[in-house]
C-alpha cells in the first residue's frame, strides 16, 4: 500500500495534485463515457460574458451548479455539462466604444460596420482562457470544448427561428413607447434591465411657475420636477381630477398668486414639508392667505404660458394639437411635489400616454414615422440637445440643467430650487444614469400570455420557494410587453424585412428561408451578423418590382440568452421536435443563478418557453443571494474591499471556499457578507478534523495489517466494503451509533438533494464530520489503537467500522468537496476488502465515478441516535460547568447526575454510562427523571402564532402567560392545552415557548454542586475535590504532558519509550510514589521513572543511550515539570568485553545497527522481536540474533554486547 498520512497537510497542494490526477485520468470525459447508457439529466448553464473575470458571484453559482450535477451523476444519471458564452450586446460594444473612442452612431458609420463588428468579435473571448483556468481550479467539471456561443451561426439561426415562431403566433409588434434609455450606449433597454442597477443619487429639484393665460389675478400654476432638462419639451400640465387645489397669495414672493394642491402648500415655504401641519405653520407666520379652493377638474382646460418657446415657434409645433393646457389624470399624487405635473411626452411613460389620449400628440403618426420627429423631442440618441434647442445644441442633457435653471430664474419663473435624493436606475453596463425616452421598437406581447406565465411558473420548483412565488411570481403577474430590439450593431440582427412604408413585413426563420426569399444560391449565407445581411434585399410580393429591406435593429442580448435551450442544440435544425421534447433535452431538470436573474435570464427563459411550448423551461431552480463585502457594501475593485478569490483559493483551497459558500445563507437566497476568516474556519473546523480522522485510521490500520500478525482469516483482517460483520447489529454501542447516523445521513442527503435544498444538506454533512471526529473516534481510541484490553477481533471491527464510514463519507462529500474527497478516497480505496461483492463498484479510478451509497434502513435506530445526542448534550454541559468554575477536564470528579423527564430517554443514556463516565471524567453517574427538583419553568407566548389569532387581546394574554408559576407551566406541558377564563380561550402548548431555568435556590442547599440545562437534558455536577481526586488529576496532567511531547518529536503510537519525570514540588513526587504504575499504564507502557535515575544511568561509563528528548514542559498547577523520553528495548553495551570477540563483519553490522537506532525513533520488526526474546532469556546467555544487511549479530544480555534499562538501573543503584 502507498498511503499518504503525514501529520500536517497543505490542502491547496493536495488540490493541485488532484487536478493532475484528473488530467491523467481524463476524468470528466471518462465519467461521460461511463454514463453513456444512463437516463439523461438536463442542465442549462446561463452564459456569462467573457469580457471580464469571474467574481465571487460566478464562483458561488458555479459551485452550486457543480454540486448538483455531480450529485446527479453519482445518482445514476448522464449529465452533459456544456459551458456557454454570451457574446453579443452592450458589454462587448461598450469595451470597443472605449477603445475606439466611439461616442455616436456617426462614429460607427465612419469606422465602418464591418470593422466595428470585427473588433467586437476579436475581444469576445478575451478572458476565456482565464475563465477556464479559474473554473477548473474551483473544481467544476464542465465542457468548454463543446460549449455554445451566442455568436455562432447555428445559435443565431435558432434565435431567428424562435422569433419567427413568436411572429407567427401574433406575439410580435412594432410599437412606439417611452422606454428606459441608455444615452451612453445609445439604445433603449427593457424594463427588467432598468431594474438591475438602482443607485441613490442627488438631483436638482426645481419648483417653477406657469402663468395662466388671461387670468385676472395673474395666477401661476406651480409644478415640480427633478429633470429640468425636460422643461424645453413641456406641452401640458396635469392635475389629479379629485384632489383639492388652492389659489393662494404668496406674501413671501411679493404677493404672487400661485395655484398648488392643498396638501402640498407647505412645500412652497421655508422649512418645506407637506401635510396640514406644515401648511398651518407657514400660515401662522403669515406666509400666505388662501384665496379660493377648487377641485382639479375645475382647472382642466386652463391655458398657460410655456416655460420656453422652442415648440411654439419651431416647425415641430405644427405636429402638436391644442398644447400648453391643463389636463387631468389619476397618476398625479399628493405625495411629493406640488400636485401639478409637467408633461413632456417624449420623456415619460405617463406623459406619452396622457398626451396621446388628449390628442396633443398623435400616436399613429409617431409609430408610422419610426422616429421621434412626431414628438417634441429635442434630444438625440446620445443624450445631447438638438433642434429646436439650438442654443444648447450638442450639450449633454444633464450638463444643461444648470444653464436651464439660470434662465428660468432670470425669467422670474423659479419658485424654489432644492436638491433631491432618491433611488434612480442606471445602465447596468455603462453605469450611467438612464433616461426615459420615446423610441420606436419591436415588442413581444408578453401581457397577452401573462396568465400562462404565472401558471407555468407554478409547475417549477423554486429554491427558496418564496423567490418563485413572490419575487418572480409577482414580476410575471405584472409583466409588461418586452422590447426586444436594440439600436446597436454587434448582435443577432432582427430577421425582419419590410417595405419602405412599413406596410409589408416579412419575418425570416432560417438561413434557407432567407436564401430562398432573396433568390440566393444555397450556402451563400454563412454569417448572420449585420455586415453580412443588412444589404440583402428581397422582392415584395405585394408590390412586385419593389424591395424589402432589413430593419436596422439587433436583438436584445437577453433574448439570445433566453433562447439558449434552442440555440445550444441548434433546434429545430439539428434536433427535431420529438427528439428535443421526448429525449429530455427540454425542459431542463435543473438550472441555477443569482437572485438578480429573476428579472434577467430566468425571466427571458420563461417568456420564450411559455410562448413557444406552453411550459416552464426548467423543473428545478436554485436562486442564490448576493455576495457582499465584509462591510456589507457591494464588492468593488476600486475600493478593494474584498480578497481576490484565487488568492483565497491558494491560501485555503477550493474546497474550503466551496463549503463556506454553500453552507451559508446565500444558498437560500439571502445575502452573504464574505469573510475570509469564514473560509479559514472551514479548514480548521471541517477539513482538518476530517483529515485527522482519516490519519488516525491509517496510523492504526497499517500496523494492524502488517505481517507477521495479519493473515487472511476473517477474524484477522478488515472487512471494509463487505456485507459482514458490520451488517449485523454491532455489539459495540458506538459502532451501532455511527452506522445508524451514517445511514440516516445517506437517507437525508438523498431526500434533501432531490428537493435541491443544499442549505440543509451541507450543514448536516459538516455536523456528521463533527460527530465522527469528536464523537466516534474520540470515544473509541482504545479499540481503534488495539489497547492491551482490546481483542484483535474487536479492533478489526472498530477499524472496519471507521474505514467504512470514512470511505462512504468520501463518496457522500464528493459533490461538495471534490478535491478532498478525491485524494482521501485514493488512499481509502486501498483498504477495501477484495472479498467484498461491491469491490468493483467501490474501487474506481476516481471517487467521482462511484455511485451514491444506498441507505441501510435496518441500521437506522432513531431512538439510539437520540440517546447518544442526549449523552453528548450532558457531556457538553459538563464541560461548560467545568469551564465556568475553572476545573480542568483532566481533573476527575466524584459524581454527576443526568436528569431528563422521559424515563425511556434516561434508560437509553444509562446504557451508555461507560462513555458518559469517561467523557465527563467522573467516578459515578446517577440518573433521574425528577426535573422539578432542579428546574423552574417559564412560559413565553409565541407572538407570531398568537398575535394574528388574538389581535388586540394578545398583550393581555401575553402578560398573563408570562406571569404563570412553574407549576402552571408544567401543567400546560403535561396536558397539552389550558383553558383561560379572561379572555375565554383555549391555549395550546404549541403556542408558547417553555423555557427551563436552573433552580438556584435548591442548588445553594448543596455545597459544591452546580447544574446546567439545555435541549431537555439537565446535568448536576458535584464539584467537590478531595486529595484522592486531586492526585488523579495530577496523573492525568502528567500523562497529557507526555503525550504532547511524544507528538512534538514525531513519535507514532507504536514507538515504545521509557518516561523519566522530574519536578520541583509535591505533585510530581506523589505521582511517582503512589501512581507511577497507573500513569505508565495510561501511556501503554511500564511505570514512570524518576528523573534522577536517568542522571544516574548517564554517569555509568561506556553506556550509549537513545535519549529522544529531554526538556521542561508546561507546568502543572504551578509546579515545574521536566520530561525525558528514552527509546525502550535493548541498548548497545560498549563496555562489554565480548564485543571484541565479534568478527569484523559482525562488529561493523553491530555499529551500523547502533547508528540506525540513534537516527530513528522506529524499531524494526526484527529488532523488536529480538528484544522481546532477549528480555525473556537468562542473563549472560545468547538471547537471539538480529540480521543486519545479511549479517547475524548476537543479542547478549548482561556483561555483553547489548543491555537493557533494568540492568543499567541496577548497575546505577536505582
TrEMBL record:
Enzyme type, top EC level: ligase
Keyword Calcium: no
Ranges for domain Aminoacyl-tRNA synthetase class Ia: 18-671
A family per Pfam: DUF5915
Enzyme Commission (EC) number: 6.1.1.5
Keyword Aminoacyl-tRNA synthetase (UniProt): yes
GO-annotated biological processes: isoleucyl-tRNA aminoacylation
Annotated Methionyl/Valyl/Leucyl/Isoleucyl-tRNA synthetase anticodon-binding domain residues: 735-894
Keywords, comma-separated and alphabetical: Aminoacyl-tRNA synthetase, ATP-binding, Ligase, Nucleotide-binding, Protein biosynthesis
Catalytic reaction annotation: tRNA(Ile) + L-isoleucine + ATP = L-isoleucyl-tRNA(Ile) + AMP + diphosphate
Family: Belongs to the class-I aminoacyl-tRNA synthetase family.
Protein name: isoleucine--tRNA ligase
Originating species: Cyanidium caldarium (Red alga)
Taxonomic classification: Eukaryota, Rhodophyta, Bangiophyceae, Cyanidiales, Cyanidiaceae
